[in-house]
Amino acid sequence: MRRRNVKNAKQRIENHPELVIANPKEYIGKWHEVFNNDNPIYLEIGMGKGKFLREHALKNPNINYIGIEKFDSVIVQAVEKIAPLNLINIKLINVDAEELLEIFNANEINKIFLNFSDPWPKNRHQKRRLTSEKFLALYEKVLNGTIEMKTDNRGLFEYSLMSFNNNNWRFKELSLDLHAIVEDEEPKEIITTEYEDRFVEKGNVIYFVEVSK
Fold first, then answer.
1. Inter-residue contact 97 to 71 (CB < 8 Å)
2. Which helix (H) or strand (E) holds 137?
3. How many CB atoms neighbour CB 49 within 10 A?
4. Per-residue pLDDT of the chain (213 residues; tens, 9 = 90+)
5. Packing angle, helices 51-59 and 72-82, rounded to 10
6. 3-state DSSP call for residue 140?
7. Rounded to an integer, what distance in angstroms lies between the CA atom of residue 98 and that of residue 154?
8. Closest CA to 95 of 71, 111, 114
9. For the chain, what are the domain ranges?
10. Is 150 helix (H, G, I), strand (E, B) or coil?
C-alpha cells in the first residue's frame, strides 16, 4: 500500500519533543529515567496512528508505553492525537524496528505488541516480517515478559505460530477469533487499533497469540 506524504511531517513531529524522543539511542538502558519511575515498559512496534497505545496509556497510568513507527507520514498523526492529552506515561520513537538493540538494553521491555503488522506475503520477503527469526532474536534480547500479536491475515498468523514454535517461544494464549461472542460469558474488554475497528466492522476474523520465552 502506497503511503501518502504528509506536508511538513518532520517539522510537526519535532514540535513535540515532550512526546517524541529525537535521539532514542542516547537513552539505551535509561528508559526508566526518561519516565522518571520504575513502572513496567510496554512497547508497540508499528504503532500506526496510535489509537491502541493511546487508550492503553489512558487506562493504565502505572505502565509506561513506547510506540515505534518508522514512517513520518504515519507517526505524525499519532503525535497530533496524543500530544493534547499531556500523558506522562507515553513516548514515541520514529525509527525502524531493526534498530531495537541500539535503543534498549537486555530485559528493559516488559511486553511487546505486534498489531496488524505488514504480512509481506511474498516468500522472498519473509525476513521482513516482524515475526521472522531475525526479529524474534532481537525481541528476545530486550524483552523480559511476553509478546502479544494480533492480525487479520491468516497466512501471517500461521507463519508466526510456526516461527514462534521453531524458535522455542512458549504459547500462553491463542485465539482464532478474538472478537467472538461466547454465550453466557461477559464480553471481553479489548483495546483495538484503527485497522482492527475497520476489520471487525467488515466481519473479518481477528487472530491473537501471546507468547513468552
1. no
2. helix 133-142
3. 20
4. 445 677 788 899 999 999 999 999 999 999 999 999 999 999 999 999 999 999 999 999 999 999 999 999 999 999 999 999 999 999 999 999 999 999 999 999 999 999 999 999 998 999 999 999 999 999 999 999 999 999 999 999 999 999 999 999 999 999 999 998 765 567 678 999 999 999 999 999 999 999 999
5. 30
6. helix
7. 24
8. 71
9. 9-212
10. strand
CATH classification number, 9-212, choose in 3.30.1300.10, 2.30.38.10, 3.40.50.150, 3.40.50.1370:
3.40.50.150
Question: pTM of the entire structure?
Answer: 0.94
Sign of torsion over alpha carbons 92, 93, 98, 104: negative
Please enumerate in sequence order all residues whose Cβ is within 8 A of that of 86, keeping only pairs 6 or more positions apart, or say none: none
**What is the phi/psi pair of residue 93, to 5°?**
-130, 130
Joined together, the cell numbers standing for residue 152 give 487479520
Catalytic residues: 118
Place of cell 521482513: 128
Which cell numbers in the block locate residue 172? 500462553
Q: Looking only at Cα atoms, what is the longest distance across the chain? A: 51
